[in-house]
Amino acid sequence: VRHLVIVLGDQLDEQSSALQGFDAQQDVVWMAEVAEESTHVWSAKQRIAVFLSAMRHFAQHLQAQGLPLVYTRLDDADNLGTLQLELGRAIKQLQPAALVMTAPGDWRVLQALRAAAAEHQLPLELRDDTHFFSTVREFAAHAQGRKQLRLEYWYRALRQQHGILMEGGEPVGGQWNFDVDNRESFGKAGPQNVPAPTRFAPDAITTDVLALVNRRFAGHPGTLHSFGWPVTREQALRALNAFITERLPLFGKYEDAMWQGEAWLYHSHLSCALNLKLLQAREVVQAAEDAHRVGLAPIASVEGFIRQILGWREYVRGIYWTQMPDYLERNALDAQADLPAWYWTGNTDMACLKDAIGQTLEHGYAHHIQRLMVTGLYALLLGVRPQAVHSWYLSVYVDAVEWVELPNTLGMGQFGDGGLMASKPYVASGKYIQRMGNHCKGCRYDPALSTGEAACPYTTLYWDFLMRHETLLKKNPRMAMQLKNLSRLDEAARAAIRGQAEAHRQGQTLK
Ligand code: FAD
Ligand code: SF4
């Protein structure tokens, strides 16, 4: 064997760089399902199932194309349980001259594969991951010499470089950013006629996987009864097309809105397909740009959507790879609390959290504002250790892979990197959640109150957070408004809030 070509569970694309120049006469593809990938964090059943099913479908596709493939199944009796050990075994059996792969998304996985290559004294050829618009080298060059990293500059540079939403050197629509148009709520009437999400009934392969996951990972979080994620490229393309025609037009307007019992709204639900590489970021961005060109979707929606993929997705990847491995340990606010146990069950009387966690466990999905401003915000205000928060997010979402999850959680959500990723901590009181949806109406707490029996824990903890970090936050001009409001509280009010926050905290840790 000339090349043993490593294909990981999130590299499921026959166009990927690792497979370029593949010669079926002398090369072999290697794929392995190993328990470690589902147990290094307490991975939710939906997440395990989506990876295994997509891997098995991709393996079938490669075999149908006549590519020689060595594939270890999770339920193989002699499965060694880790990528490193399984790769070692394949190396011994096949005696390749070299290992080839597309650069993996995760730092941990890269170390494990490098260790296997070194142990067997084999060269490991890492090829650029062409699913992204940018390389990590380009990001590093952009970041060099900048005191602060900001999404906006990186995003604009990529728009110009790749000519996306550009017209004669100017941004289409006359401005780079339509964020202010993208913050509407559904008002009193709530969402009307939201198109049904594109879901896929399990085929034979998926049905097998669901049974396997239920058997093997019975104690893991979540349920599988609603499983409907795209697990093939063909399904992912159908989901993309449906999103572009049915949801994109209203995506921007309702990007930040929430509604009790409505998990899907106008979001694309494509993150998982993108992260597994069933879809190319370029084709998703292209499809959205085309929709604007033919008058199917307004610029505010299209720009907002493209900013998430061309902007944020590329930005967090750059942050991850330029900051690892130290990034994992960062804790700028010295937050030390444990994650409340009910994050794994949704068993809380806070209506917004119950809904967000409930649907997360049911579908492996929550949209961005639920992640940032409901589950993320509560953990931030409570002062949970960022590493515990990180483990939770990496476990529960079908789209969770560390390169994208970690900067979003530790950086954007928890301010654990002290402002590298986001210019200020995303903190708000319960009033923000009230404004963006209807959860507060059905809640035993009142977002306007910070003390007393009915005080909303978000509101109490918000003021408490500002007090606890006042000295640090004073250095940040973007926090001036919030600190000005804090300065209006007299000492008695402050003491009452502190007491209430402490009592709430005790209640959470006793559970
Ligand atoms: P849409 O709202 O339709 O957005 C379109 C696409 O843009 C997404 O599919 C995604 O690929 C991309 N995108 C949007 N926001 C971001 C972002 N902040 N960073 C990177 N890409 C983005 N995204 C993941 O893919 N995996 C994760 O593990 C993950 N963890 C997160 C943890 C926290 C605490 C937060 C605040 C965000 C996280 N995100 C993560 C980003 C974002 O919330 C999800 O990508 C999005 O909710 C997925 O749903 P969607 O496909 O319907 O997205
Ligand atoms: Fe959430 Fe507070 Fe509103 Fe209840 S009152 S739904 S806890 S924000």
UniProtKB/TrEMBL annotation:
<dbReference type="InterPro" id="IPR036134">
    <property type="entry name" value="Crypto/Photolyase_FAD-like_sf"/>
</dbReference>
<protein>
    <submittedName>
        <fullName>Cryptochrome/photolyase family protein</fullName>
    </submittedName>
</protein>
<dbReference type="InterPro" id="IPR052551">
    <property type="entry name" value="UV-DNA_repair_photolyase"/>
</dbReference>
<dbReference type="InterPro" id="IPR014729">
    <property type="entry name" value="Rossmann-like_a/b/a_fold"/>
</dbReference>
<dbReference type="GO" id="GO:0016829">
    <property type="term" value="F:lyase activity"/>
</dbReference>
<dbReference type="Pfam" id="PF04244">
    <property type="entry name" value="DPRP"/>
</dbReference>
<dbReference type="InterPro" id="IPR007357">
    <property type="entry name" value="PhrB-like"/>
</dbReference>
<keyword id="KW-0456">Lyase</keyword>
